[in-house]
């Protein structure tokens, strides 16, 4: 692709709670693809996503999003962000939540109805968000980010706790969006979602271990199962580190 | 800032309250209930009831809106909705003004009820018109809202937020002149009272309910209330961060 990457992260360092959680991380996310950000809980996935959205105070490095510095006000219409914990209002209905966010981003009624259908919540439109299950709540949260069809979607563990059928439908929706030109960065700590992604970023302890398509990962590690492949990448990276392990 | 985002925010806050009828009932009934209590407490002393009850009609919305706003903003911060709003094309002013419109409307309703009961039924009198007390009540509600918004930034939990009420509001109530005339206070207490926003709110209300001419002092007090409100809103806006650690 001739165009520059949708997201370019260079040498990103982030400190949280007195310790460094990202140690000079560099990564690129291509346009119009589904990129999976995978790694165990606490490896820095959410922090990296927060830095890309521009809500994270960073200690060093640069983050460029759609040609602008992350967090630039012009990006607020072009980037959609869904946090891991559903960030919607529990004391109003599904429809009211979407109505509010739609007025902010300028989406019409028709768009609201279609978005509610995409996340499978049409039957719950008039229900208070607080009375929904955890999975339903995170779908409301996801729907609010889909309202204005942003060019870049940052989704932090959007499929946690969803039933397999619905998870499958959401992945289809993500691929549909990517075909339409949307760039998606989706994090997950379960490897069985890795096969759904066009590109994979494997993270561990604040560092990027590997980057490539699922096929490339399988080939380079000689493992057909992606979970095994990830394990192999981790072992390989530890082996490289091992000589230094004994040093003071 | 945009009118659409501001009004959408005000509407959303009103939706939240509409789904909570018990809160609405408490907001509207409690101040009037307390005023009725005061009426019976001072049954044989109409002058005392007038001196305390009349200004109090305009102070209730201040107290209530402080509490409601500090909890509401704390919930926005803790639930992640504030962080999400900060990633959207929405100005901080849209959030502040949206809250101001919603709570201002609520305060107007609250003031309407408590003033109607106080001035039309319980025999309180406002020399310069009950409507003036009502308007001051709305201004005071906005002051309470602005202070609550700022205070919410310093609370991590709702337990802490409710403690700000006795910590920040009670001293102002005690020193504003409502219970003891400020001239009779010790010098240092009198000096402190000058620094407290509620002092000016009370002075304006006392003036509106007394028979003396309003004069320039009234204008100065109203300006002081407006000044404190804007200052607190400005400080509150600083605590709405787009980037956090």
Task: Explain the overall architecture.
Chain A has 248 residues and is α/β, with parallel strands linked by helices. Chain A folds into 2 domains: 1-23 and 30-42 and 51-78 and 152-160 and 188-248, P-loop containing nucleotide triphosphate hydrolases (Rossmann fold), CATH 3.40.50; 80-149, no CATH class. Helix content of chain A is 35%, strand content 24%. Chain A has helices spanning 45-53, 94-105, 109-118, 134-146, 164-179, 214-221, 226-245; strands spanning 7-16, 19-29, 34-38, 60-65, 68-69, 79-82, 152-155, 183-188, 199-204, 207-212. In chain A, the strands form 2 sheets. A 6-stranded mixed beta sheet of chain A has the order 6-7-8-3-9-10, sandwiched between helices. Chain A has a 4-stranded antiparallel beta sheet with strand order 2-1-4-5, covered by helices on one side. The model of chain A has no long low-confidence stretch (mean pLDDT 90). Chain B has 10 helices and no strands. The radius of gyration of chain B is 18 Å and the shape is globular.
